[in-house]
Write a structure and sequence with these properties.
With about 500 residues, this protein is of the alpha/beta class. About 35% of the residues lie in helices and about 20% in strands. It is built from 16 helices and 21 strands. Strands 15-16-14-13-19-20-21 form a 7-stranded mixed sheet. It has a 6-stranded mixed sheet with strand order 3-2-1-5-12-11, with helices on both faces. It is globular, with a radius of gyration of 22 Å. The relative contact order is 0.13. The model has no long low-confidence stretch (mean pLDDT about 95).
């Protein structure tokens, strides 16, 4: 094969990027565009699917131009995406029937309560690995079918089809209506054991099977792209957190990574056997390569981490750019007794409390905006600790080190605090773009750019490492305060 460049499309919650990688897994070029966040009502979050598709085309063209490459130089295109965000569109025209409903959206809370009934939020966990929560795609599909006139009849007739963002992009690029196992595992509609849509789950949610995409492996050729990228194989699709797990080369059971983005997501590779959770974690598909057995993961999903920094910037104005939070937090030696729990849309793992709302606890006249900034950064580390503790108890595997990626890992202050509260080393790789890299790796495996996982492991190198320095008694005292602050968020909404 002469073409050894891969274009990875990373379609995220706030922006779309295309990163071109070479055969050594190095970044050759990058382009990025933000898209609008639409808030039609409190708790509702939407995206314009047409805007996202336009941005995908624009950033891919721009990244190739920046690298001095053409489509003929590409061995493959890989896709990674914000996961549970839900789209429905006309199968004939491609026109969306509604804005995409974003994973953060909470409008399905009534549907969740109705489905839970007397059985509670774990009603479907054994089948799909997930608790009933507004987070996932299935309830969002149900809401659209219930609320838009005639939509259910059109879906039953095959005129309207569903996809998460990966499916939307695969359909736009190749014309194929398909998704991968990692994204399908976030719908509440796929059986973890069969890796196919589950008839009992579909009946419970009231969703017609004919509107759903076929489920394929994460690393496989979905089809050849058309249009500007005509002839280039689209050869991978992974939900963003699975892509980061893959990009961090966490191929062995017991290896873990945490991505720090709009939210934060801790994934632990559990091998080829799914581990049911009783401690508020998600059992999900880590990835599947070709016809190999799927690799499963335990996941802790945290809704608000980087988004809290954006909130301080955009809503309160105490910083003018996200990186300034580090400078402001560094003006004080500690949080001044202040704890910030950003339960803006409820609490995700390990609590799963949609009734929670954000609090700032421990305020005194001593607290300054520097303390607030530090408490906001520390909130991310404490939330990750909540998840890591649940994960260790669930799997009986202590995390030996945590591989980290995402924008917030640029904060040395946060990474050191994370190592302190976890009491394990935190390691950042030389290639920070691990989500896009995972999509590139999976696409490259599918078309032969890389022969095997060992080759990918050899590409991984540490850029920075933080080790714990906090005394155990200080960590325990601070964690008790954090848990008290979390308790204050509960039972806020009726």
């Amino acid at each position: 094969m002469t073409s050894r460049f891969i274009a990875a499309v990373d379609q995220g919650t706030t922006s779309t990027r295309c990163i071109v990688f070479d055969g050594a897994g190095r970044v050759v070029a990058l382009d990025q565009r933000e898209h609008r966040q639409l808030y039609p009502r409190p708790g509702w979050v939407e995206h314009d699917a047409a805007e996202i598709w336009h941005n995908v085309q624009a950033v891919t063209r721009a990244a190739l131009d920046a690298a001095g490459l053409s489509r003929a130089d590409l061995a493959a295109i890989g896709i990674t995406n914000q996961r549970e965000t839900t789209l429905l569109w006309d199968a004939a025209t491609g026109e969306p029937v509604h804005n995409a409903i974003v994973w953060q959206d909470t409008r399905t809370d009534r549907i969740i309560r109705d489905l839970a009934g007397d059985a509670g939020p774990d009603r479907f966990r054994e089948a799909c690995g997930l608790p009933l929560a507004t987070y996932f795609a299935g309830p969002k599909i149900r809401w659209l079918l219930d609320e838009i006139p005639d939509l259910r009849a059109r879906a039953e007739a095959g005129e309207v089809i569903f996809g998460t963002v990966d499916t939307w992009l695969i359909w736009r690029l190749t014309g194929r209506h398909a998704t991968d196992v990692t994204n399908a595992s976030r719908t509440m509609l796929m059986s973890l054991s069969t890796l196919d849509w589950d008839d009992e789950l579909l009946a419970a949610f009231g969703i017609p099977r004919q509107m759903l995409p076929e489920i394929l492996s994460s690393s496989t050729v979905y089809g050849e792209a058309r249009g500007d990228f005509g002839g280039v194989p689209v050869a991978s699709a992974l939900g963003d957190q699975s892509a980061a797990l893959f990009g961090q080369t966490c191929f062995d059971p017991g290896q873990a990574k945490c991505t720090y983005g709009t939210g934060s997501f801790l994934l632990l590779n559990t091998g080829t056997t799914p581990i049911p959770s009783v401690r508020g974690l998600l059992t999900t598909v880590g990835y599947r390569i070709g016809a190999d057995a799927p690799v499963y993961a335990l996941e802790g999903s945290i809704a608000v981490t980087g988004a809290l920094v954006q909130w301080l910037r955009d809503n309160l104005g105490i910083i003018s750019s996200a990186p300034q939070i580090n400078e402001l937090a560094a003006t004080v030696e500690d949080n001044g007794g202040c704890y910030f729990v950003p339960a803006f849309s409820g609490l995700f793992a390990p609590y799963w409390r949609p009734d929670a709302r954000g609090v700032i606890a421990g305020l005194t006249g001593y607290v300054t905006k520097g303390h607030l900034a530090r408490a906001a950064l520390e909130a991310t580390a404490w939330q990750v600790k909540d998840v890591a503790d649940a994960m260790a108890a669930e799997s009986n595997v202590d995390i030996a080190e945590l591989r980290v990626d995402g924008g917030m890992t640029a904060s040395d202050l946060l990474m050191q605090f994370q190592a302190d509260v976890l009491d394990v080393p935190v390691v950042r790789p030389t290639i920070a773009e691990t989500t896009a890299l995972g999509a590139a790796y999976a696409a490259g495996l599918a078309v032969g750019v890389w022969p095997d996982l060992e080759t990918l492991r050899a590409n991984w190198h540490a850029d920075a490492r933080w080790s714990a320095t906090m005394p155990a008694d200080e960590r325990d005292r601070a964690y008790r305060q954090w848990t008290k602050a979390v308790e204050r968020t509960l039972n806020w909404t009726d």
